[in-house]
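Sorry to interrupt, but I need a hand with the structure work. Please put the record directly below this note.
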Amino acid sequence: MTSDATFWDQTAEKYAASPIKDQAAYEHTLVETKKHLRPGDRLLEIGCGTGATALLLADAVAHITATDISANMIKIGRGKAATQQVTNVDFVQATPADPKLAAQTFDAITGFNILHLLPDLEGDLAALSERLKPGGLLISKTPCLADWKWRAIGRLAIPIMQFFGKAPYVSFLKGSDVEAHITAAGFEVIMADNHNAFSRFIVAKKT
């Protein structure tokens, strides 16, 4: 079996070249996210991939620390930032609980299509809460595979793919599961909506 960091390192180039599957839902998520950001905010993104979303949000905040466990994803993100001449986004290889991310540093944290990929979701959400300033926001969109109409096929196929190193860790969550985990980590859910058939968009405030 392949580690998650190795899997994403190996697929980074292909990931960067892949088109967004649901452009309308993606753009809707960006619009809704920007509604909750302020020009002076310091934003942390977890699971930034190759940086496309961070770069699109860069004009809405003062600074973004975009993180990912994959060194190759981070390298591609830095290259995109340089090409686009975006200077207020730093790309950092880090996990959500990495001590290099200081406590009470960020006004908001974003995590798109990542919460279902975290093996220690409870621990990582607790770590993210620590990194937010009091009243800071967690903004996420999560594929809730337990609500997916093809979930039975997925439950069979994904473990086989993982065995051969063709898929990372994946959890099958319901939308209600995601909200429950976020609430248990010390957040108050202030907005929740579906941005496609089975992806849950959540805005939560650190209490």
About this structure: The chain has seven helices and seven strands.
